[in-house]
Design a protein that fits this description.
The structure is a homotrimer. By secondary structure, the first copy, chain A, is α/β, with parallel strands linked by helices. The first copy, chain A, has a single domain, classed as TIM Barrel (Alpha-Beta Barrel), CATH 3.20.20.70. Helix content of chain A is 38%, strand content 14%. Chain A has ten helices and eight strands. The first copy, chain A, has helices at 30-40, 53-56, 60-69, 78-85, 90-99, 116-127, 147-160, 186-195, 208-218, 232-239; strands spanning 21-25, 46-49, 73-76, 104-108, 131-136, 164-167, 201-204, 224-227. The first copy, chain A, has an eight-stranded parallel sheet with strand order 3-2-1-8-7-6-5-4. The interface between B and C is medium-sized, with 35 and 31 residues.
């Protein structure tokens, strides 16, 4: 911090097991990626190259190298995995990952249907060579997944080899763990937290209100994902109680 | 594409007659414009210098040159045409266009009332020296234009010399071809498509849901406008079926 | 302007007493700050380093110098003042301001409760060494402040030494002087304008509709704050009647 203050929660240091921030890159230019690194690289653990953007982005290999050299781990968004799988091109997916020299992959079934056993097989297979994160939840508003099933899938996928599971919200934040009005689906989230180790879940939280809600509920070091590149610093202030929304969160009672 | 995949729709190559993407520049700096070119220049056909921003932007001539040299055609947003016309300064408008060495102009009547015959006269006059695109639809929520009139104006303006007609939506996407809740005015759009050659229409579609809607309805190469500079790559993934919203759009039935 | 037009309202020149634009910097990188300066520095009077972002931003001193050298006055957002005050660290606040060589400070009570007399004492004390602006209004939706109290606080704070008072709206623009639906609280604003010199008020107006509303009501040179860095040029077009929303605002009747 640029000035020493009391009552600031301790943040886990890099490389983090918990307290993770995952940023969504939807096609940043090299100079924009450089800008992200310069301004807030130390707060960013992962950079997700969102959905299929990696297929149409210029200078992809250079950007991947740039992130890696700066200690930000880039990876291909889960939709890209599905884009290959639905075409029956699993081996090509692995080839693409290797060409980019990535060490982290995401497995998801947000767009296509994938039996959870099949998904877990992919996770096991990939976990032998890469760190795997897997995403639970549909991108479609009309698909309702019962709470028990969220929990079961998360447990199965962690057992199959996922390092972390991601709870789906899309970039718009009105799906999965959120209601249509962007508010948190508290019952579902409570249920997940009671049954899955919270350090193992990354919550997609694209909106400030969602980020503040999770920090108040699960602490400064909650894992959060789908953060916009220009919101990383703002998120860090929320985590540390340095913004109105979490101003009182980490203060002792006598100061409240 | 950075990896060869099957079932990806063919995109028209530059210089495009169809499959156009028009980006809205509301005052990008030189380095931001450079960033747009570097990351996604090949997907951008036109850059609209939105409303009156060209009058107050620094380094305007340099930015225009930068875009032109990179194969992106810049032009002055229609509101600027109206700003000159309402002051009786048509000749000055032409002078400003020539000073900037632009070869594309937009004629519109979104802010001021302009009899369609007068508008078509301007189009004819300008079409002798420039490529003309003209915009149909009001920027005002309280002005209702019947469907037949949309169609008639589009036909007249194309006959008068417009290369393409633009269907108005504003930067906010809740006007003209859209309802107040940003959903598509399907009846109006259906009517237009039945009567005007779809290759000749550019649909303003600032929101992702709107872009996906048009791609599903009219294909990967539908002409879309008012795209934010940092959404060009995302739009390209929608066009190619590389994002959740259009994931199944271009797949054969046996893979669905 | 890049072309001479008639019926463009005169803008006050820098350094401005009125016609102020305050930009919200939530953690720009050096190159993004440079970009803001290059594209629209002459339209920006102040740069607020929002809430606690200054504590976690890299290259803070360099960025402050960059802004100052370019004639944009940077200052620490009011929430930072409150972060120090609630910890009983007023002297440290002053030390931090001095280390950064800032000449402008903001005093606010948007997150914590502060008796107005105490707040005015801080204002008086700081006004001996710095230009002070103070913010009125709560960041919390559940705190209702009666109109008379808004006016009284503004008057007291100006008497205590505030150069300008800021009317609270948050970055989201749905608090304080705005209703939950982002529309202006016209009764409150009318009341303020009747009792406080309008040149002394800076209205937070993050949304375009809010900026246009104030320009129509109070003229091209109304003081506006919480402007996003990439909206400065757009705001300037609104101020000058160069965008649809204010197209007719400064035209003589015979042209309307």
């Amino acid at each position: 911090m640029n000035y020493n203050l009391s009552f600031i929660p301790a943040r886990t240091p890099k490389p983090r097991e918990y307290g993770l921030t995952m940023v969504m890159d939807k096609g940043l230019s090299m100079s924009e990626a450089q800008s992200l690194i310069e301004s807030s690289g130390q707060y960013v653990d992962f950079v997700k190259l969102g959905f299929g953007t990696s297929l149409v982005t210029n200078n992809l290999k250079e950007k991947v190298k740039l992130y890696k050299n700066a200690g930000l781990r880039p990876y291909l968004g889960g939709t890209l995995f599905e884009i290959f799988i639905i075409r029956g091109m699993f081996d090509d997916f692995v080839k693409f990952v290797d060409e980019l020299e990535l060490d982290l992959v995401e497995v998801s079934d947000g767009s296509m249907e994938l039996d959870n056993h099949v998904k877990c097989d992919y996770i096991s297979k990939l976990a032998k060579r890469y760190t795997v994160i897997s995403e639970v939840g549909s991108k479609r508003a009309d698909v309702h997944i019962p709470d028990e099933e969220w929990i079961n899938m998360m447990k199965h996928e962690l057992s199959a080899g996922s390092w972390k599971v991601i709870a789906e919200a899309r970039e718009s934040g009105n799906i999965g763990i959120y209601n249509q009005d962007h508010s948190a689906n508290t019952k579902l989230i409570d249920d997940i937290v009671r049954h899955v180790k919270v350090e193992n879940v990354i919550w997609e939280a694209p909106l400030k209100s969602q980020q503040a809600w999770f920090i108040k509920m699960l602490g400064a070091n909650v894992n959060l994902g789908n953060i916009a590149p220009n919101e990383v610093i703002s998120l860090e202030t929320l985590r540390l109680g340095l913004r109105g929304d979490t101003f009182f969160q980490f203060l002792p009672d006598e100061l409240k």
